Amino acid sequence: MNDDTAIRRDFLKGAAASLLVMFSEDDLLAASLRQTTPSTPPVKFGLIGVGQWSKEILATISRSQSARISALCDPYQPALKKALETAPNAMTTNDYRKVVESPEVEAVIIATPTHLHKDIVLAALQAGKHVYCEAPFAHTIDDAKAIASAAQANPKLKFQAGLQGRSNAMYRHISNFIRTGVLGSPAQVISQWNKKLSWRRAAPTPEREAELNWHLSKQSSIGLPGEIGIHQFDLVNWYLKSLPIAVSGFGSTINWKDGRDVPDTVQCVLEYPNNVRMMFTSTLVSSFSNSYTLFQGSNSSLMLREKRGWMVKEADSALLGWEVYARKENLHDETGICMVADATKLLEEGKEPGKESSMETRQSALSLAFDNFAQSIRENTNPIGSVLDGYRATVTAIKAHEAVMSGNKIAIPKSIFDLN
Questions:
Q1: Residue 88 has pLDDT above 90, yes or no
Q2: 247 with 268: CB under 8 angstroms?
Q3: Which is it for strands 130-134 and 107-110: parallel, antiparallel or unpaired?
Q4: What SS3 state is found at 270?
Q5: pLDDT confidence of residue 32
Q6: pLDDT tens profile 292-302
Q7: Where in the chain is the domain with CATH 3.40.50.720?
Q8: CATH 3.30.360.10 region(s) of the chain?
């Protein structure tokens, strides 16, 4: 290692330390995403709902030292049979009540269709089980409030909202920069999620097909804002430390004219205090540009994808110091400073972030979410992705969907985000 490299590493370590000391011990504890120790028994989970997303859940937990699946539940037997390939020792049932009542289950993961969450959450909490509930909580505000209120009424039980962005190591890393005011004055947020797919799934019977395609019906679904946009809405609520006061929306069915009554293409404008607006667009018609969230401010902009992040500084913004040594990439004809989530760990290992290692995070957000949930159960700590976070993100998504379906501007009273 030459002298220049040593100086550079010393500077980066100092910059990382300077950033860390700006936060309290409680903040750092809350931000930690440690796995439970190998000597700690893994938390025994019951997975209720074994659809498409549950395949990812099962695969993730099968690799975890802190959790294992002890029960599987789904009304469709072929789905249970397939899930057993990943969790061969799990009990199986088509009745969620048998899962929440089982002494072999400490916590439940609720991954059923959104409109079925409420009764299962209430039963699980009544049975004394910890709950991980996928987001959105529900398809109506009344159901979402019932879930959140029940969770708050049982403070000894851990409840984690399935907002994977809250556990995303890169998002959490960048949140520290947000808290230092690196954006300057926030101006606007632009986000999108594009993927060409029908969302429709085939099934052997009309009844099963209706069950599988619940998200294509306005009776049971809150559409693209609810099933997709909620994660980007939550990120904006989190980073801006604010909640929307109004939303306008538009929606159309462009490509998948198959009888669905939920649009395959939507646009939303969410209004936040201080005249900051978030533009969210999503389509199932085209995959172009995939997904991202872009925060723009007077000092810098932050472009976030799921596993990568970049900061682009304005020419007149103050020099921060550490960015001189950071890795840079071209980003839309600008110079983007790469944001590396594992920077502190890499520095401790004597490596330079972004130069001697992958630019992507080491663990998936879902893996970190379950590790953190298991940790909160074993160590009696607060889970990442709180009840209130999940409820407020759900309310935001429901109101955005209402605006899309009506084509109107909808005011969002501040009181609707409260549980009291």
A1: yes
A2: yes
A3: parallel
A4: strand
A5: 46
A6: 999 999 999 99
A7: 43-166
A8: 169-361+387-417
Burial class of residue 11, CB neighbours in 10 A (0-12, 13-18, 19+)? middle
The amino acid occupying position 208 is R
Starting from the edge strand earliest in sequence, which strands make up the sheet with 276-283, in order? Answer: 328-331, 334-338, 309-313, 300-304, 291-297, 186-194, 276-283, 265-272, 246-252, 409-411
Pick the more confident residue, 279 or 349: 279
Whole-prediction pTM = 0.89
pLDDT at 184 over 50: yes
Buried b (16+ CB within 10 A) or exposed e, 185-202: ebebbbbbbbeeeebeee
CA–CA dist 410, 396 (Å, integer): 11
User: Based on the number of CB atoms within 10 Å of its own CB, is 341 exposed (0-12), middle (13-18) or buried (19 or more)?
Assistant: buried
Please name the fold of domain 43-166. Answer: Rossmann fold (3.40.50)
Looking at the domain 169-361+387-417, which fold is it?
Answer: Dihydrodipicolinate Reductase; domain 2 (3.30.360)
pLDDT digits (tens, 9 = 90+) for 390-405: 999 999 999 999 999 9
DSSP β-bridge partners for residue 245: none
Tokens of 102: 């089982």
